[in-house]
């Protein structure tokens, strides 16, 4: 099991499963983000894959977001933009993928992880799957993932998540806002729900689902440019003393 994290795939009965893992709360370092984006794109190009399931390993956190170790190591604007473009690439890969994507969220999710959950076409969560956009507390802001989250939950709920950057919002709140489609009481129930929906969709017309996906994502055609601009904002802000000091204090606490 890699200490640097890993991404694994499986294709069974027209269902393509992509699983990511990192020992630090399934956080996503820059290299893993790029690998995840390319894996989603490749899976989307396979004609014998009719539906995609995106998940992370274990019963703990779904995704702890950006890697603090990498964030604090960024020392120039180009590195900053490059890092945040990783999240932009993942979100755009999910958006442009011609397959419907089910996201399985088994536990707490922060920052970029909330963006990934939001970019799913149908997201099923465990009741422990509280969410938090902590970026403002770091001196940044959820700029790159913002369009994905706002698209799913609306401006008001996005504002609530963004401004109260220190608070967790529980899975039921996320379901009420439209981020989660279903919330399950046990991890077994979660797996059953994900598997049942994936099997159902695997029998549907790939062409019909492809056209439906286009409809779902209407109005996002400018995201290649938009998310790059957002990555530039984050890449600039991450260099601030405020952010460096926050991360140092967080890591030493």
Plain-language structure description:
With 253 residues, the protein is α/β, with parallel strands linked by helices. The protein has one domain (6-206): 2-enoyl-CoA Hydratase, Chain A, domain 1. The protein is 51% helix and 15% strand. The protein contains ten helices and eight strands. It has helices at residues 30-45, 68-73, 77-96, 112-119, 146-163, 171-176, 187-202, 206-216, 223-237, 241-252; strands spanning 6-12, 15-21, 51-56, 100-105, 109-110, 122-126, 131-132, 182-184. The strands form two sheets. A six-stranded mixed sheet has the order 1-2-3-4-6-8, with helices on both faces. The protein has a two-stranded parallel ribbon with strand order 5-7. The mean pLDDT is 95.
Briefly, what is this?
The chain has 253 residues and is α/β, with parallel strands linked by helices.
What's the SSE blueprint?
Elements lengths: L5 E7 L2 E7 L8 H16 L5 E6 L11 H6 L3 H20 L3 E6 L3 E2 L1 H8 L2 E5 L4 E2 L13 H18 L7 H6 L5 E3 L2 H16 L3 H11 L6 H15 L3 H12 L1
Helix pairs in contact: 1-3, 3-4, 3-9, 4-5
Q: What share of the residues lie within helices?
A: 40-55%
CATH homologous superfamily grouping: 2-enoyl-CoA Hydratase, Chain A, domain 1
What's the total helix number?
Answer: 10
Radius of gyration: 17 Å
Spans of at least 5 consecutive residues with low confidence: none
- Write out the strand line-up for the largest beta sheet, numbering strands in chain order: 1-2-3-4-6-8
Straight-line distance between termini: 28 Å
CATH fold-type name: 2-enoyl-CoA Hydratase, Chain A, domain 1
């Amino acid at each position: 099991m890699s200490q640097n994290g890993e991404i694994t795939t499986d294709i069974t009965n027209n269902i393509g499963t992509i699983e990511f893992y990192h020992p630090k709360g399934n956080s996503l370092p820059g290299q893993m983000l790029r690998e995840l984006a390319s894996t989603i794109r490749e899976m989307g190009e396979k004609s014998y894959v009719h539906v995609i399931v995106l998940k992370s390993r274990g019963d703990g956190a779904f995704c702890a977001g950006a890697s603090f170790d990498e964030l604090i190591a960024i020392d120039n604007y180009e590195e900053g933009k490059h890092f945040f473009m990783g999240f932009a690439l993942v979100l755009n890969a999910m958006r442009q993928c011609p397959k419907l994507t089910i996201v399985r969220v088994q536990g707490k999710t922060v920052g970029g992880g909330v963006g990934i959950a939001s970019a799913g076409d149908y997201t099923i969560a465990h009741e422990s799957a509280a969410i938090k956009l902590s970026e403002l507390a770091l001196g940044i802001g959820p700029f790159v993932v913002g369009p994905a989250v706002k698209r799913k939950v609306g401006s008001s709920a996005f504002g609530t998540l963004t401004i109260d950057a220190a608070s967790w919002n529980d899975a039921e709140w996320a379901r009420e806002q439209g981020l989660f489609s279903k919330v399950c009481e046990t991890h077994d129930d979660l797996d059953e729900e994900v598997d049942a929906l994936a099997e159902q969709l695997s029998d549907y017309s790939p062409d019909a689902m492809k056209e439906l996906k286009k409809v779902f994502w209407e109005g996002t055609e400018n995201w290649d440019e938009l998310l790059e601009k957002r990555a530039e904002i984050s890449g600039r802000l991450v260099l601030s003393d405020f952010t460096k000091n926050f991360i140092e204090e967080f890591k030493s606490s």
